[in-house]
Give the backbone structure.
Amino acid sequence: MTGREHGNGAGRVAPGIVAETHRLVDAARQAFAGRGRPRALLDDCARRLEQPLRVALAGSLKAGKSTLLNSLVGQNIAPTDATECTRVVTWYRYGSTPSVTAYAPDGVRANVVVRRGGGAHGLTFDLSQLAWAVPGPREVDHLEVEWPAAALAHTTIIDTPGTSSLSREVSQRTARLLTPEDEADTALPGADAVVYLLRRLDAADIRFLERIGAGTVAGPGMSGTPSPLGVIGVVSRADEIGAGSIDALHSARDVAVRFAGELERTGLCQAVIPVAGLLAFAAATLRQQEFAAFEALAGVPVEELGVALLSADRFARPDVVLPVPPELRAQLADRFGLFGIRMAITLIRLGVRDSATLSAELTRRSGVDELRTVLDVQFGQRADQLKAHSALTALARVLTAHPGTPADQLLPRVRTLLADVHGFAELRLLGRLRTDELTMPATDLAELHRLIGGSGVAPHLRLGLPIDTSVRAQRTQAVAAVRKWRARAGHPLADQFTTTACLTAARSAEGTLTLLSE
Protein backbone atom coordinates (compact mmCIF):
# COMPACT_ATOMS: atom_id res chain seq x y z
CA MET A 1 0.00 0.00 0.00
CA THR A 2 3.02 2.23 -0.15
CA GLY A 3 3.48 2.74 -3.86
CA ARG A 4 7.12 3.74 -3.23
CA GLU A 5 8.47 1.26 -5.74
CA HIS A 6 6.42 2.61 -8.62
CA GLY A 7 7.00 5.44 -11.01
CA ASN A 8 4.64 8.39 -10.95
CA GLY A 9 3.24 7.59 -14.36
CA ALA A 10 2.03 10.11 -16.90
CA GLY A 11 3.97 13.35 -16.89
CA ARG A 12 5.51 12.80 -13.44
CA VAL A 13 2.87 15.18 -12.16
CA ALA A 14 3.12 14.16 -8.50
CA PRO A 15 6.59 15.61 -7.68
CA GLY A 16 5.71 18.84 -9.48
CA ILE A 17 2.42 19.35 -7.72
CA VAL A 18 3.96 18.54 -4.31
CA ALA A 19 6.76 21.06 -4.86
CA GLU A 20 4.35 23.79 -5.93
CA THR A 21 2.01 23.00 -3.06
CA HIS A 22 4.97 23.37 -0.69
CA ARG A 23 5.79 26.78 -2.17
CA LEU A 24 2.21 28.00 -1.89
CA VAL A 25 1.80 26.77 1.69
CA ASP A 26 5.15 28.33 2.72
CA ALA A 27 4.16 31.66 1.17
CA ALA A 28 0.86 31.60 3.05
CA ARG A 29 2.61 30.73 6.32
CA GLN A 30 4.80 33.79 5.96
CA ALA A 31 1.75 35.98 5.29
CA PHE A 32 -0.01 34.62 8.39
CA ALA A 33 2.97 34.83 10.76
CA GLY A 34 1.69 35.56 14.25
CA ARG A 35 -1.95 34.99 13.27
CA GLY A 36 -2.64 32.13 15.71
CA ARG A 37 -5.14 29.58 14.36
CA PRO A 38 -4.71 30.27 10.62
CA ARG A 39 -0.94 29.93 10.96
CA ALA A 40 -1.34 26.72 12.98
CA LEU A 41 -3.58 25.25 10.27
CA LEU A 42 -1.04 26.14 7.59
CA ASP A 43 1.75 24.61 9.67
CA ASP A 44 -0.35 21.44 9.75
CA CYS A 45 -0.62 21.56 5.94
CA ALA A 46 3.16 21.75 5.62
CA ARG A 47 3.67 18.82 7.99
CA ARG A 48 1.08 16.73 6.16
CA LEU A 49 3.05 16.92 2.92
CA GLU A 50 6.05 15.31 4.64
CA GLN A 51 4.10 12.64 6.51
CA PRO A 52 2.86 9.24 5.29
CA LEU A 53 -0.43 9.00 3.42
CA ARG A 54 -3.42 8.92 5.78
CA VAL A 55 -6.08 6.31 5.03
CA ALA A 56 -9.23 6.17 7.20
CA LEU A 57 -11.33 3.06 7.76
CA ALA A 58 -14.96 4.15 8.07
CA GLY A 59 -18.36 2.47 8.08
CA SER A 60 -21.33 1.58 10.20
CA LEU A 61 -21.21 0.11 13.69
CA LYS A 62 -19.67 -3.40 13.81
CA ALA A 63 -18.75 -3.28 10.14
CA GLY A 64 -15.41 -4.95 10.91
CA LYS A 65 -13.09 -1.94 10.67
CA SER A 66 -10.69 -3.01 13.43
CA THR A 67 -10.55 -6.59 12.13
CA LEU A 68 -9.73 -5.33 8.64
CA LEU A 69 -7.04 -3.04 10.09
CA ASN A 70 -5.42 -6.03 11.80
CA SER A 71 -5.46 -8.01 8.56
CA LEU A 72 -3.90 -5.14 6.58
CA VAL A 73 -1.19 -4.56 9.19
CA GLY A 74 -0.62 -8.27 9.76
CA GLN A 75 -0.59 -7.90 13.53
CA ASN A 76 -3.32 -8.06 16.16
CA ILE A 77 -3.00 -4.46 17.37
CA ALA A 78 -6.51 -2.98 17.00
CA PRO A 79 -9.08 -3.83 19.71
CA THR A 80 -12.05 -5.59 18.15
CA ASP A 81 -14.29 -5.95 21.20
CA ALA A 82 -16.88 -3.28 21.97
CA THR A 83 -14.97 -1.19 24.53
CA GLU A 84 -14.67 2.55 25.04
CA CYS A 85 -11.61 2.72 22.76
CA THR A 86 -13.75 1.75 19.74
CA ARG A 87 -15.83 4.89 20.35
CA VAL A 88 -12.97 7.30 19.64
CA VAL A 89 -10.83 7.95 16.58
CA THR A 90 -7.59 5.95 16.78
CA TRP A 91 -4.49 6.70 14.69
CA TYR A 92 -2.09 3.85 13.89
CA ARG A 93 1.38 5.13 12.93
CA TYR A 94 4.78 3.54 12.51
CA GLY A 95 7.00 3.69 15.62
CA SER A 96 10.20 1.93 16.61
CA THR A 97 8.65 0.84 19.92
CA PRO A 98 4.99 0.09 20.70
CA SER A 99 3.09 2.83 22.56
CA VAL A 100 -0.49 4.05 22.97
CA THR A 101 -1.25 7.65 23.94
CA ALA A 102 -4.57 9.32 24.72
CA TYR A 103 -5.10 12.97 23.78
CA ALA A 104 -7.66 15.33 25.30
CA PRO A 105 -9.33 18.07 23.19
CA ASP A 106 -6.86 20.63 24.63
CA GLY A 107 -3.86 18.54 23.56
CA VAL A 108 -2.94 17.23 26.99
CA ARG A 109 -1.79 13.62 26.76
CA ALA A 110 -1.73 10.49 28.90
CA ASN A 111 -0.10 7.10 28.46
CA VAL A 112 -2.56 4.25 28.00
CA VAL A 113 -2.21 0.87 29.67
CA VAL A 114 -2.32 -1.91 27.06
CA ARG A 115 -3.57 -5.38 27.90
CA ARG A 116 -3.31 -8.42 25.69
CA GLY A 117 -6.74 -9.96 25.09
CA GLY A 118 -7.49 -13.56 24.37
CA GLY A 119 -8.52 -15.27 21.14
CA ALA A 120 -9.17 -12.95 18.20
CA HIS A 121 -9.67 -9.82 20.33
CA GLY A 122 -6.05 -8.65 20.24
CA LEU A 123 -5.12 -5.72 22.44
CA THR A 124 -7.34 -3.83 24.87
CA PHE A 125 -6.64 -0.18 25.67
CA ASP A 126 -7.56 0.63 29.28
CA LEU A 127 -8.99 4.16 29.38
CA SER A 128 -10.47 3.86 32.88
CA GLN A 129 -7.52 5.30 34.84
CA LEU A 130 -5.64 7.79 32.68
CA ALA A 131 -2.94 9.90 34.37
CA TRP A 132 -3.07 13.13 32.36
CA ALA A 133 0.15 15.14 32.08
CA VAL A 134 -1.78 18.11 33.47
CA PRO A 135 -4.05 16.97 36.33
CA GLY A 136 -7.80 17.39 36.00
CA PRO A 137 -10.85 15.60 34.58
CA ARG A 138 -10.76 15.28 30.79
CA GLU A 139 -12.46 13.39 28.00
CA VAL A 140 -10.45 11.43 25.43
CA ASP A 141 -10.45 13.16 22.05
CA HIS A 142 -8.44 10.53 20.17
CA LEU A 143 -5.82 7.83 20.59
CA GLU A 144 -2.47 7.50 18.82
CA VAL A 145 -0.88 4.06 18.50
CA GLU A 146 2.75 3.77 17.42
CA TRP A 147 3.77 0.27 16.34
CA PRO A 148 6.77 -1.26 14.54
CA ALA A 149 4.76 -2.69 11.66
CA ALA A 150 6.11 -2.48 8.09
CA ALA A 151 2.64 -1.77 6.72
CA LEU A 152 2.57 1.51 8.68
CA ALA A 153 5.91 2.80 7.39
CA HIS A 154 4.37 4.69 4.46
CA THR A 155 0.68 4.68 5.43
CA THR A 156 -0.99 5.92 8.60
CA ILE A 157 -4.28 4.06 9.16
CA ILE A 158 -7.10 5.76 11.07
CA ASP A 159 -9.73 3.56 12.74
CA THR A 160 -12.97 5.51 13.18
CA PRO A 161 -16.13 4.99 15.29
CA GLY A 162 -19.22 3.62 13.57
CA THR A 163 -21.15 6.13 11.51
CA SER A 164 -24.43 4.62 12.71
CA SER A 165 -23.70 4.62 16.44
CA LEU A 166 -26.64 5.13 18.80
CA SER A 167 -24.65 8.04 20.21
CA ARG A 168 -24.79 11.00 17.82
CA GLU A 169 -21.59 12.41 19.32
CA VAL A 170 -19.72 9.16 18.60
CA SER A 171 -20.86 9.17 14.97
CA GLN A 172 -19.98 12.85 14.62
CA ARG A 173 -16.36 12.11 15.53
CA THR A 174 -15.97 10.29 12.22
CA ALA A 175 -17.81 13.02 10.30
CA ARG A 176 -15.62 15.75 11.82
CA LEU A 177 -12.48 13.85 10.90
CA LEU A 178 -13.39 13.20 7.26
CA THR A 179 -15.63 16.16 6.38
CA PRO A 180 -14.91 19.11 8.70
CA GLU A 181 -17.60 21.75 8.31
CA ASP A 182 -16.59 24.76 10.35
CA GLU A 183 -13.61 26.66 11.68
CA ALA A 184 -13.84 24.85 15.00
CA ASP A 185 -12.78 21.72 13.15
CA THR A 186 -9.47 21.21 11.42
CA ALA A 187 -9.35 23.03 8.08
CA LEU A 188 -8.58 19.90 6.13
CA PRO A 189 -9.96 16.38 6.35
CA GLY A 190 -7.97 14.20 8.70
CA ALA A 191 -7.51 11.56 5.97
CA ASP A 192 -6.28 11.72 2.39
CA ALA A 193 -8.29 8.66 1.34
CA VAL A 194 -11.07 6.46 2.77
CA VAL A 195 -11.82 2.74 2.84
CA TYR A 196 -15.57 2.55 3.55
CA LEU A 197 -16.85 -0.76 4.95
CA LEU A 198 -20.35 -1.94 4.09
CA ARG A 199 -22.34 -4.84 5.49
CA ARG A 200 -25.44 -3.67 3.68
CA LEU A 201 -26.11 -0.63 1.58
CA ASP A 202 -28.59 1.55 3.47
CA ALA A 203 -29.56 5.21 3.40
CA ALA A 204 -27.06 6.14 6.12
CA ASP A 205 -24.17 4.74 4.08
CA ILE A 206 -25.32 6.56 0.96
CA ARG A 207 -25.69 9.86 2.84
CA PHE A 208 -22.23 9.63 4.34
CA LEU A 209 -20.59 8.70 1.04
CA GLU A 210 -22.46 11.54 -0.68
CA ARG A 211 -21.11 13.91 1.98
CA ILE A 212 -17.57 12.77 1.20
CA GLY A 213 -18.21 12.93 -2.53
CA ALA A 214 -19.61 16.46 -2.35
CA GLY A 215 -16.32 17.72 -0.95
CA THR A 216 -14.17 16.12 -3.65
CA VAL A 217 -16.06 17.74 -6.52
CA ALA A 218 -16.24 21.24 -5.09
CA GLY A 219 -13.80 22.19 -7.82
CA PRO A 220 -12.62 25.66 -8.69
CA GLY A 221 -14.99 27.56 -6.45
CA MET A 222 -14.06 25.48 -3.43
CA SER A 223 -17.48 25.82 -1.87
CA GLY A 224 -18.80 23.09 0.38
CA THR A 225 -17.14 20.74 2.83
CA PRO A 226 -13.57 19.55 2.12
CA SER A 227 -13.13 15.78 2.10
CA PRO A 228 -10.73 13.03 0.94
CA LEU A 229 -10.29 12.53 -2.80
CA GLY A 230 -10.10 8.71 -2.91
CA VAL A 231 -12.81 6.33 -1.67
CA ILE A 232 -12.76 2.51 -1.91
CA GLY A 233 -15.75 0.41 -0.79
CA VAL A 234 -15.35 -2.92 1.01
CA VAL A 235 -18.12 -5.49 1.51
CA SER A 236 -16.88 -6.42 4.97
CA ARG A 237 -17.37 -9.60 6.99
CA ALA A 238 -17.96 -11.26 3.64
CA ASP A 239 -17.59 -14.70 5.22
CA GLU A 240 -20.85 -14.15 7.15
CA ILE A 241 -22.90 -13.80 3.97
CA GLY A 242 -24.59 -17.15 3.43
CA ALA A 243 -24.24 -18.09 7.12
CA GLY A 244 -20.55 -18.96 6.76
CA SER A 245 -21.12 -21.61 4.09
CA ILE A 246 -18.22 -22.67 1.85
CA ASP A 247 -19.51 -20.49 -1.00
CA ALA A 248 -19.92 -17.42 1.24
CA LEU A 249 -17.33 -15.38 -0.66
CA HIS A 250 -19.03 -16.16 -3.96
CA SER A 251 -22.24 -14.77 -2.46
CA ALA A 252 -20.30 -11.79 -1.12
CA ARG A 253 -18.83 -11.13 -4.56
CA ASP A 254 -22.34 -11.03 -6.00
CA VAL A 255 -23.28 -8.55 -3.28
CA ALA A 256 -20.17 -6.51 -4.06
CA VAL A 257 -21.11 -6.39 -7.75
CA ARG A 258 -24.57 -5.11 -6.79
CA PHE A 259 -23.15 -2.53 -4.37
CA ALA A 260 -20.55 -1.52 -6.94
CA GLY A 261 -23.23 -0.98 -9.55
CA GLU A 262 -25.19 1.27 -7.21
CA LEU A 263 -22.19 3.18 -5.78
CA GLU A 264 -20.06 3.50 -8.91
CA ARG A 265 -23.09 4.61 -10.92
CA THR A 266 -23.20 7.70 -8.74
CA GLY A 267 -19.40 8.03 -8.49
CA LEU A 268 -19.36 7.50 -4.72
CA CYS A 269 -16.67 4.77 -4.78
CA GLN A 270 -13.82 4.02 -7.14
CA ALA A 271 -14.13 0.26 -6.52
CA VAL A 272 -16.00 -2.17 -4.26
CA ILE A 273 -14.17 -5.30 -2.99
CA PRO A 274 -15.50 -8.21 -0.85
CA VAL A 275 -13.17 -9.08 2.05
CA ALA A 276 -13.36 -11.60 4.89
CA GLY A 277 -11.22 -9.68 7.36
CA LEU A 278 -11.35 -12.28 10.14
CA LEU A 279 -10.13 -15.02 7.78
CA ALA A 280 -7.45 -12.75 6.31
CA PHE A 281 -5.91 -12.06 9.71
CA ALA A 282 -6.20 -15.65 10.93
CA ALA A 283 -4.55 -16.89 7.73
CA ALA A 284 -1.65 -14.44 8.11
CA THR A 285 -1.03 -15.66 11.67
CA LEU A 286 -1.82 -19.37 11.18
CA ARG A 287 -0.14 -21.52 13.85
CA GLN A 288 1.23 -25.02 13.37
CA GLN A 289 -1.08 -26.29 16.12
CA GLU A 290 -4.08 -24.93 14.18
CA PHE A 291 -2.89 -26.55 10.95
CA ALA A 292 -2.56 -29.90 12.76
CA ALA A 293 -6.10 -29.46 14.09
CA PHE A 294 -7.46 -28.82 10.59
CA GLU A 295 -5.63 -31.92 9.33
CA ALA A 296 -7.25 -34.01 12.05
CA LEU A 297 -10.71 -32.58 11.30
CA ALA A 298 -10.23 -33.28 7.59
CA GLY A 299 -10.22 -36.98 8.46
CA VAL A 300 -13.71 -36.82 10.02
CA PRO A 301 -16.52 -38.10 7.74
CA VAL A 302 -18.16 -35.23 5.83
CA GLU A 303 -21.66 -35.73 7.21
CA GLU A 304 -20.47 -36.05 10.80
CA LEU A 305 -18.34 -32.91 10.57
CA GLY A 306 -21.17 -31.04 8.84
CA VAL A 307 -23.44 -31.65 11.83
CA ALA A 308 -20.74 -30.42 14.23
CA LEU A 309 -20.32 -27.25 12.17
CA LEU A 310 -23.99 -26.25 12.26
CA SER A 311 -22.98 -23.49 14.71
CA ALA A 312 -19.87 -22.21 16.46
CA ASP A 313 -21.31 -23.14 19.87
CA ARG A 314 -22.05 -26.69 18.77
CA PHE A 315 -18.59 -27.08 17.23
CA ALA A 316 -16.91 -26.18 20.55
CA ARG A 317 -19.19 -28.27 22.81
CA PRO A 318 -17.33 -30.83 24.98
CA ASP A 319 -19.99 -33.50 24.30
CA VAL A 320 -19.38 -33.34 20.54
CA VAL A 321 -16.74 -35.99 19.88
CA LEU A 322 -14.06 -34.83 17.46
CA PRO A 323 -10.29 -35.50 17.23
CA VAL A 324 -9.52 -31.97 18.44
CA PRO A 325 -9.93 -30.79 22.08
CA PRO A 326 -12.93 -28.50 22.75
CA GLU A 327 -10.68 -25.63 23.88
CA LEU A 328 -8.77 -25.67 20.59
CA ARG A 329 -12.04 -25.93 18.64
CA ALA A 330 -13.31 -22.82 20.43
CA GLN A 331 -10.09 -21.03 19.47
CA LEU A 332 -10.52 -22.04 15.81
CA ALA A 333 -14.10 -20.78 15.80
CA ASP A 334 -13.01 -17.51 17.42
CA ARG A 335 -10.12 -16.88 15.02
CA PHE A 336 -11.35 -18.36 11.72
CA GLY A 337 -15.14 -18.42 11.96
CA LEU A 338 -17.18 -21.28 10.51
CA PHE A 339 -16.40 -20.22 6.94
CA GLY A 340 -12.66 -20.27 7.60
CA ILE A 341 -12.82 -23.67 9.28
CA ARG A 342 -14.80 -25.16 6.39
CA MET A 343 -12.45 -23.57 3.83
CA ALA A 344 -9.29 -24.80 5.60
CA ILE A 345 -10.60 -28.36 5.90
CA THR A 346 -11.72 -28.38 2.25
CA LEU A 347 -8.31 -27.17 1.06
CA ILE A 348 -6.55 -29.91 3.07
CA ARG A 349 -8.87 -32.53 1.60
CA LEU A 350 -7.99 -31.16 -1.84
CA GLY A 351 -4.29 -31.69 -1.26
CA VAL A 352 -2.78 -28.88 0.84
CA ARG A 353 -0.03 -30.48 2.91
CA ASP A 354 1.66 -27.75 4.95
CA SER A 355 0.76 -24.67 6.99
CA ALA A 356 2.54 -22.18 4.68
CA THR A 357 0.51 -23.30 1.66
CA LEU A 358 -2.72 -23.28 3.66
CA SER A 359 -1.97 -19.77 4.93
CA ALA A 360 -1.37 -18.52 1.38
CA GLU A 361 -4.53 -20.17 0.01
CA LEU A 362 -6.73 -18.84 2.82
CA THR A 363 -5.26 -15.35 2.39
CA ARG A 364 -5.98 -15.42 -1.33
CA ARG A 365 -9.55 -16.55 -0.78
CA SER A 366 -10.17 -13.92 1.92
CA GLY A 367 -10.06 -11.10 -0.65
CA VAL A 368 -7.43 -9.09 1.25
CA ASP A 369 -4.79 -9.49 -1.50
CA GLU A 370 -7.21 -8.00 -4.04
CA LEU A 371 -7.92 -5.15 -1.64
CA ARG A 372 -4.19 -4.52 -1.12
CA THR A 373 -3.72 -4.35 -4.91
CA VAL A 374 -6.57 -1.85 -5.31
CA LEU A 375 -5.26 0.24 -2.39
CA ASP A 376 -1.81 0.32 -3.94
CA VAL A 377 -3.09 1.32 -7.39
CA GLN A 378 -5.62 3.88 -6.19
CA PHE A 379 -3.84 5.22 -3.08
CA GLY A 380 -0.24 4.05 -2.75
CA GLN A 381 0.92 4.95 -6.25
CA ARG A 382 -0.85 8.31 -6.00
CA ALA A 383 0.12 9.15 -2.42
CA ASP A 384 1.82 12.44 -3.35
CA GLN A 385 -1.20 13.60 -5.36
CA LEU A 386 -3.64 12.69 -2.59
CA LYS A 387 -1.59 14.53 0.04
CA ALA A 388 -1.21 17.57 -2.22
CA HIS A 389 -4.97 17.62 -2.80
CA SER A 390 -5.61 17.61 0.97
CA ALA A 391 -3.12 20.43 1.53
CA LEU A 392 -4.41 22.57 -1.36
CA THR A 393 -7.98 22.08 -0.21
CA ALA A 394 -7.03 23.24 3.28
CA LEU A 395 -5.02 26.16 1.94
CA ALA A 396 -7.95 27.36 -0.14
CA ARG A 397 -10.21 27.13 2.89
CA VAL A 398 -7.85 29.15 5.11
CA LEU A 399 -7.35 31.83 2.46
CA THR A 400 -11.09 32.11 1.89
CA ALA A 401 -11.91 32.27 5.62
CA HIS A 402 -9.19 34.83 6.43
CA PRO A 403 -8.99 37.43 3.64
CA GLY A 404 -7.09 40.68 3.76
CA THR A 405 -3.47 39.49 3.76
CA PRO A 406 -0.84 39.35 1.00
CA ALA A 407 -1.71 35.64 0.73
CA ASP A 408 -4.95 36.59 -1.08
CA GLN A 409 -2.98 36.63 -4.33
CA LEU A 410 -2.28 32.90 -3.91
CA LEU A 411 -5.93 31.86 -4.04
CA PRO A 412 -6.42 31.97 -7.85
CA ARG A 413 -3.42 29.68 -8.36
CA VAL A 414 -4.61 27.28 -5.65
CA ARG A 415 -8.05 27.06 -7.26
CA THR A 416 -6.49 26.54 -10.68
CA LEU A 417 -4.38 23.65 -9.41
CA LEU A 418 -7.35 21.97 -7.76
CA ALA A 419 -9.35 22.28 -10.98
CA ASP A 420 -6.64 21.56 -13.54
CA VAL A 421 -4.03 19.17 -12.11
CA HIS A 422 -4.39 16.12 -14.28
CA GLY A 423 -3.78 13.58 -11.51
CA PHE A 424 -6.78 14.96 -9.60
CA ALA A 425 -8.88 14.75 -12.77
CA GLU A 426 -7.88 11.09 -13.19
CA LEU A 427 -8.87 10.25 -9.63
CA ARG A 428 -12.24 11.99 -9.96
CA LEU A 429 -12.92 10.20 -13.24
CA LEU A 430 -12.01 6.81 -11.77
CA GLY A 431 -14.82 7.38 -9.29
CA ARG A 432 -17.37 7.96 -12.07
CA LEU A 433 -16.15 5.68 -14.81
CA ARG A 434 -18.92 3.09 -14.51
CA THR A 435 -21.74 5.60 -14.49
CA ASP A 436 -24.60 5.26 -16.91
CA GLU A 437 -23.64 8.67 -18.30
CA LEU A 438 -20.65 7.16 -20.11
CA THR A 439 -21.87 4.89 -22.88
CA MET A 440 -19.18 3.24 -24.99
CA PRO A 441 -18.11 -0.34 -25.82
CA ALA A 442 -16.75 -2.38 -22.92
CA THR A 443 -13.31 -2.63 -24.58
CA ASP A 444 -13.10 1.17 -24.84
CA LEU A 445 -14.19 1.58 -21.21
CA ALA A 446 -11.48 -0.88 -20.14
CA GLU A 447 -8.87 1.01 -22.18
CA LEU A 448 -9.95 4.36 -20.75
CA HIS A 449 -9.83 2.95 -17.21
CA ARG A 450 -6.32 1.66 -17.86
CA LEU A 451 -5.06 4.88 -19.49
CA ILE A 452 -6.06 7.05 -16.54
CA GLY A 453 -4.19 4.79 -14.13
CA GLY A 454 -6.90 2.39 -13.01
CA SER A 455 -4.50 -0.58 -13.25
CA GLY A 456 -1.38 1.30 -12.17
CA VAL A 457 0.47 4.46 -13.13
CA ALA A 458 3.56 2.99 -14.80
CA PRO A 459 3.59 3.64 -18.61
CA HIS A 460 3.34 -0.02 -19.65
CA LEU A 461 0.37 -0.53 -17.30
CA ARG A 462 -1.44 2.52 -18.68
CA LEU A 463 -0.87 1.26 -22.22
CA GLY A 464 -1.80 -2.35 -21.47
CA LEU A 465 1.58 -3.71 -22.54
CA PRO A 466 3.98 -6.28 -21.02
CA ILE A 467 6.65 -4.82 -18.76
CA ASP A 468 9.42 -5.81 -21.18
CA THR A 469 7.88 -3.95 -24.16
CA SER A 470 10.46 -1.68 -25.83
CA VAL A 471 10.25 2.06 -25.29
CA ARG A 472 9.77 2.54 -29.03
CA ALA A 473 6.75 0.20 -29.08
CA GLN A 474 5.31 1.95 -26.02
CA ARG A 475 5.70 5.36 -27.69
CA THR A 476 3.90 4.06 -30.78
CA GLN A 477 1.05 2.79 -28.63
CA ALA A 478 0.87 6.09 -26.72
CA VAL A 479 0.68 8.12 -29.95
CA ALA A 480 -2.16 5.92 -31.20
CA ALA A 481 -3.99 6.40 -27.88
CA VAL A 482 -3.62 10.20 -28.05
CA ARG A 483 -5.09 10.25 -31.56
CA LYS A 484 -7.91 7.87 -30.71
CA TRP A 485 -9.11 9.68 -27.61
CA ARG A 486 -8.71 13.15 -29.08
CA ALA A 487 -10.91 12.01 -31.97
CA ARG A 488 -13.48 10.52 -29.59
CA ALA A 489 -13.57 13.77 -27.62
CA GLY A 490 -14.28 15.73 -30.80
CA HIS A 491 -17.20 13.58 -31.92
CA PRO A 492 -20.16 15.90 -32.66
CA LEU A 493 -22.65 13.66 -30.82
CA ALA A 494 -20.58 13.25 -27.64
CA ASP A 495 -22.13 14.75 -24.51
CA GLN A 496 -20.11 16.91 -22.12
CA PHE A 497 -19.21 14.13 -19.70
CA THR A 498 -18.08 11.79 -22.46
CA THR A 499 -16.00 14.59 -24.01
CA THR A 500 -14.37 15.34 -20.66
CA ALA A 501 -13.61 11.66 -20.05
CA CYS A 502 -12.08 11.24 -23.51
CA LEU A 503 -9.98 14.39 -23.11
CA THR A 504 -8.75 13.11 -19.74
CA ALA A 505 -7.69 9.83 -21.38
CA ALA A 506 -5.95 11.76 -24.18
CA ARG A 507 -4.06 13.91 -21.67
CA SER A 508 -3.02 10.75 -19.78
CA ALA A 509 -1.70 9.27 -23.01
CA GLU A 510 0.14 12.53 -23.78
CA GLY A 511 1.72 12.53 -20.33
CA THR A 512 2.81 8.93 -20.82
CA LEU A 513 4.31 9.83 -24.21
CA THR A 514 6.22 12.72 -22.63
CA LEU A 515 7.58 10.42 -19.94
CA LEU A 516 8.68 7.84 -22.55
CA SER A 517 10.44 10.55 -24.57
CA GLU A 518 12.67 11.68 -21.69
About this structure: Residues 279 and 336 are 5 Å apart (CA to CA). The radius of gyration is 25 Å.
